[in-house]
Design brief:
Elements lengths: L4 H6 L2 E2 L2 E5 L14 E5 L3 H8 L1 H15 L5 H12 L6 H13 E3 L4 H10 L1 H17 L2 E2 L15
Antiparallel strand pairs: 1-5, 2-3, 3-4
Length: 157
């Protein structure tokens, strides 16, 4: 039993995608559209960036404090923490925020959208996050183009 390194090197690998029903958000979709989000697996780099989110945020705040005037440093730091959505945010939540930012493909959510989703629809956010983690665990699609032409019927469910 040996690993076929040549086959591995030549494989056309693509991150898996999945359609996730979000009936809880149906009121925010046009009536003729199914309430679904499209999510994808994360790349290794995205996973590590998400794990490093807390340390990265702390470095930004420290830099702002270092360059800010002594009297204004705390105000600048507080403003940046608020901007980053990281004022006393638990480590696991930071990771989930980053996972959702990278893994929700359609609709594309910004940080404020993700924070609002977590705040008001935590079970939906959890369902989307679980789908992203499931796709990561399944590994890449083998031999598929890495574009977004995959239809819901051909995606993993």
């Amino acid at each position: 039993m040996s690993f076929d390194l040549n086959r591995f090197q030549q494989a056309q690998l693509a991150l898996r995608e999945k359609i996730v029903p979000v009936p809880e958000l149906a009121g925010f979709f046009h009536e003729s559209v199914d309430p679904v989000f499209r999510v994808r697996a994360l790349s290794g780099e995205e996973i590590f960036r998400a794990a490093d989110a807390s340390a990265r945020d702390q470095k930004i705040v420290a830099a702002v404090q270092a360059i800010g005037a002594a009297a204004q440093a705390d105000k600048f730091a507080e403003a940046f923490r608020d901007l980053l959505g990281s004022n006393d945010v638990p480590e696991e939540m930071r990771r989930r925020i980053e996972h959702l930012l990278a893994g929700v493909v359609d609709p594309k959510l910004d940080r404020q959208d993700v924070l609002r989703l977590i705040a008001f629809y935590p079970t939906v956010a959890g369902k989307l996050h679980a789908a992203i983690l499931e796709l990561i665990g399944e590994g890449p699609d083998l031999g598929k183009a890495s574009d977004s032409t995959q239809t819901p019927a051909s995606s993993s469910t």
